[in-house]
Amino acid sequence: MTQYHNPRAETLSRDELTAVQDQRLRKIVQHVAERNEGFRSRFAAAGVDPRGFRGLDDLAALPFMNKDDFRREYPLGMLCADREDLAEMHMSSGSTGTPVVMPYTANDLHQWGECMARCYVMAGAVRGDVCQITPGFGLFNGGFGCYHGAREAGLFIIPCGSGNTVRQIKLARDFGTRILTGVVSYALRIMEVLAEARETLPALQIGIFGAETFSDQMKQRIYDGLGIEVFDIYGMTETGGIGTLGMDCPDHSGLHQWEDHYVIEIVDPETGAPLPDGEVGEVVVTSLTREALPVIRFRTGDLSRVVSRQPCACGRTHLRLDRISGRLDDMLIISGVNFFPAQVEQSLLKVPGVLPNYQLIIEDHHGIKRLHVTVEAHPGVTGYQVEKQLKEDLNFSPDGEVVAPGTLPRPEGKARRVFYKEIP
Ligand code: DLL
């Protein structure tokens, strides 16, 4: 039987969802315009009058936001709440190092907990389940988001945070962890340490992983390695953190987006024009219910497509996005071919014996770029096999190098897989 954390909200009809979004969108546009001069002036520049704003029909008239807005307004220039109402903040530094800050009121923390609790229950969590949280507790939103949601869902929390994998495994065994949450690459680390110790975790049944592109091959490897059901959870600092946007359900037919809290658009990354369902484009998010810093048409830089707006086999009605296929700023161009690191991962993992630890080194020789792929593999796998598979899938010929298991660094947070090297 399907379980819901919030049965009414998760099964609203399409008409009801549209009505909720329409009403909340009008309200949030007025809220940000009333509370923040920056929003007011950007609306004015785009010719939008918040008092005359009609809701979803006028959505496309609203100006976009992006990460640069957050950076320019660091630390709290975009705040839409009173300072004394702030309760917590999180921050991501991203690849450029300039921080993106997300402040929360108590209501925002409750909203986060609600979205995240829906994810836990959607994965099959029930009250009292042991939930081990492995993303870091700190400025990164991963640890605390898992925590706020697990409190809301009534779970027994083991707040490990990142690292110390041997201790993580000991705690999971001693306390009978049923649900493990983490960054995708950390699931791999746990699998590896378990395999070295020739141990299994029989009580473990549910893995909730995200924060990095997550190919189907990688999901399969984690499923095979840990023998658990694997869920792909989505969210980001700017929308309020892990789980705010949603996750896939046990039907695994796309990531349900919590549409009563967020409006999701897919737009053409070049023109910003909305794309029809099914076409891949940039995910744009408007948060409908956050107080301290709502985002209005935030360009995430993530690529995906709407899989379906029809009710799902699980009973939920919220639209499903395909797994995130990459970030626009991660796109690589080599020998005239555009591709994403996730495609290389997908290709590598097709080769039997190849392990999911790899690095992509872009070698730049006076402007001529070559891709060098280093990947760990069991004995017997050759560089030629790897090169052959990559050539077949990517339509160009990277260099392939196979190294022994355990050679490449083991990240505790998000893995960095792409490196640049100037060749004199
Ligand atoms: O990574 C939130 C999170 C933590 C999600 C733990 C899941 C698990 P940020 O550090 O702000 O927040 O990074 C957000 O990470 O724009 C995507 O590019 C990427 N990302 C997040 N979840 C997924 C996913 C967290 N399930 C950025 N699949 C986003 C692919 C993801 N990419």
Strand and helix map with partners:
Elements: H1 7-10, H2 14-35, H3 37-45, H4 67-72, E1 86-92, E2 100-105, H5 106-122, E3 130-133, H6 141-153, E4 156-158, H7 165-175, E5 179-183, H8 184-196, E6 206-210, H9 216-226, E7 229-236, E8 241-248, E9 255-257, E10 262-267, E11 281-287, E12 298-304, E13 306-308, E14 320-321, E15 326-327, E16 332-334, E17 337-339, H10 341-348, E18 354-365, E19 368-377, H11 383-394, E20 399-403, E21 418-422
Parallel strand pairs: 3-4, 3-5, 5-6, 6-7, 18-21, 19-20
Antiparallel strand pairs: 1-2, 7-8, 8-9, 9-14, 10-11, 11-12, 12-15, 13-14, 16-17, 18-19
Bound molecules: 5'-O-[hydroxy(phenylacetyl)phosphoryl]adenosine.
5'-O-[hydroxy(phenylacetyl)phosphoryl]adenosine binds near residues 92, 235, 236, 242 and 324.
Throw out a few tags for this protein.
single chain, 424 residues, alpha/beta, Rossmann fold, GMP Synthetase, Chain A, domain 3, 2 domains, 9-stranded mixed sheet, 4-stranded antiparallel sheet, 11 helices, 21 strands, 30% helix, binds 5'-O-[hydroxy(phenylacetyl)phosphoryl]adenosine
The end-to-end distance, rounded to whole angstroms, is: 63 Å
How many domains in all? 2
CATH class of the largest domain: Alpha Beta
Cofactors, ions, other ligands: 5'-O-[hydroxy(phenylacetyl)phosphoryl]adenosine
Going by helix content, strand content and strand pairing, the class is alpha/beta
Number of extended strands? 21
Which homologous superfamily in CATH is the superfamily of the largest domain? ANL, N-terminal domain
Beta-strand content estimate:
25-35%
Give the % helix.
25-40%
The largest beta-sheet arranges its strands as 4-3-5-6-7-8-9-14-13
The poorly predicted ranges are none
Q: Give the C-alpha Rg.
A: 22 Å
CATH architecture of the largest domain: 3-Layer(aba) Sandwich
Average pLDDT confidence is 96
Shape label: globular
Can you summarize the main beta sheet? Answer: 9 strands, mixed
Number of helices in the DSSP assignment: 11
Instruction: Enter the CATH topology name of the largest domain.
Output: Rossmann fold
